[in-house]
Amino acid sequence: MPACSFPPAPDLVLDALTLRFGAREIFAGLSAVLPGGRCTVLLGTSGVGKSSLLRIVAGLEQPTAGRVTAADGAPVRDRVAYMGQRDLLLPWLDVAGNVMLGDRLRGRRPDRGRAGTLLERVGLAGRERALPAQLSGGMRQRVALARTLYENRPFVLMDEPFSALDSATRTRMQDLAAELLRGRTVLLITHDPLEACRLGDTLAVLSGHPARLQERIPIPGPTPRPPDDPALLAVQGRLMRQLMTEAA
Ligand SMILES: Nc1ncnc2c1ncn2[C@@H]1O[C@H](COP(=O)(O)OP(=O)(O)OP(=O)(O)O)[C@@H](O)[C@H]1O
Predict the structure, then answer these.
(1) Which H or E element spans position 95?
(2) What is the pLDDT of residues 99-140, one digit of tens each?
(3) Whose Cα sits closest to atom 11 in ligand 1?
(4) Any idea where the ABC transporter domain is (predicted)?
(5) Domains in the chain, please, with CATH?
(6) Residue 4: pLDDT band by 50, 70, 90 thresholds?
């Protein structure tokens, strides 16, 4: 799979998004631009509204008000690859079938070769015929990652995509994602400050009730950053302080 088979993806524009569940306002009038071809990492305390925001961008949740558009004016929804917190693998399809599910749903001919290459890259070569029930949680998450990468979309939305992985596998999968998602507009949720600083071009913290996006933190230099990169270490300390203040 090429790192990016189209020009850098456009900005995503979040325009005055409001979300209410009953009387509870999760966020109100939230606006932001997610820079095109860049990875924005979204952090914040549990329950603040990160997944809801991601689902709105994915078109899976309707905001109470506001809208999400792409800077090129074309519709967003059919250009999105979404990887949720739950792997959403279909239990009756084998691993390769799950990776190629999108093509099957769209009535397109699946590309077995590309699915196989991606499964190899996520460390699951030889498991193409396994059923999801025969896999560990971390393996299932890597199948979901392969499926997301297989989709080859300009907008990629990922909700804690590496949470079930041991730290060595997690680091390898972060490297793979950074390589294969280069040039796409990515919004990635994580609770892991190191992961945020390895992968993010920009960090955004969502906090408060209703939630607001705090001042964004840019990190210079290409991703994935090595864990001892000086730019990473400087921002990680600042980020930790901010997250601890928000959680207090
Ligand atoms: N369909 C729903 N109906 C009612 N309330 C909901 C619904 N979905 C989410 N919520 C509430 O909205 C708030 C934000 O949830 P959300 O899952 O977006 O948080 P989060 O920041 O992603 O949390 P976490 O980090 O734990 O995944 C929570 O209080 C949650 O209970």
Answers:
(1) helix 95-99
(2) 999 999 999 999 999 999 999 999 999 999 999 999 999 999
(3) 47
(4) 12-233
(5) 12-89+155-247 (3.40.50.300)
(6) low
Record the tokens describing residue 52, joined without a space. 């809801």
Closest Cα to residue 72, out of 126, 8, 21? 8
Mutational test site, ligand 1, from 19, 21, 41, 207, max ligand atoms within 8 Å of CB:
21
Q: What is the distance of C-alpha 2 from the center of its chain?
A: 19
Ligand 1 neighbour 247 (Cβ under 6 A)? no
Return the ligand 1 atom nearest residue 44 CA.
21
Mean pLDDT, rounded, of the chain: 93
Nearest residue (by CA) to ligand 1, atom 8, is 52
Residue nearest to atom 7 of ligand 1 (CA): 21
pLDDT attached to residue 6: 62
Please report the atom of ligand 1 found closest to the CA of residue 160: 27
d(CA 48, CA 19): 12
